[in-house]
Amino acid sequence: MNETNQKALESAAIHKAISSKEFKAASANLEPGNYAVDMTVRIAGTINKGEPFEQRISNKINWLLLFSIAASKVNDETLACIIKAYDEAEGDKAKIDELTEAVKFKVQAHVDKQKGKTLTLKSGNVKSALTVKAVRVENGVVSKVG
Asked: Is 109 found in the same domain as 95?
C-alpha cells in the first residue's frame, strides 16, 4: 500500500470510527469551555471500499426561482388564494410535509422528463466495522476510556 493510500485509509478510519450520532451526544454533554486534549486512540477493525459506479442524479431545482415564475403567471385572485392557503398551512407540520413532498415529487418528475437526469460517476461506498479505544493518562496513571 502506497503512502497516499495509507493516509486515505487512516483518514477514513478516523472519520468512520465515530458516528455523527455519537458525536452529537458527546457535544450535547460537553459543558461550554476550552479544553486541552492529549489522548491516545486505537481504532481497530475493517474498512471495505466498493467499486466506483455510475448514477443518474436528478437536476437541482431553484425553488425560489420556480415559485417566482409560477407567481408571475397567475392572476391576483389566484395569488391571494395561494397566500391564504400558505397562512392556513403555516405551523401545521403534517400539512406542510404532505404539501411539500407532493409538490417536490411532481415538479422533480417534470424536470427530469424535460431535462433528463445527469449521469455522474460516484466513488465506491465505504463500509466499516471499527472499534475505538482511548487511553487517558492522569497523574501518571493510565486508564481506558469508553
From this structure: yes
In this structure, the answer to whether residues 105 and 135 fall within a common structural domain is no
Question: What pTM value is reported for the model?
Answer: 0.50
CA–CA dist 134, 45 (Å, integer): 15
Q: Residue 135, by phi and psi: left (phi above 0), alpha (psi -120 to 50) or beta?
A: beta
Q: How many domains does the chain have?
A: 2
Question: In the chain, what is the greatest distance between 2 CA atoms, to the nearest angstrom?
Answer: 77
CB of 135 within 8 A of CB of 142? yes
Quote the CA–CA distance of 137 and 122 in Å, as a whole number: 42
The sign of the CA dihedral 40, 41, 42, 47 is negative
The cell for 78 is: 389566484
Each residue's pLDDT tens digit, 74-127: 999 999 999 999 998 898 889 888 888 888 989 999 988 988 888 899 998 999
What domain range includes position 140?
3-52+123-145
H helix intervals, 1-146: 3-17, 20-29, 63-72, 76-89, 93-115
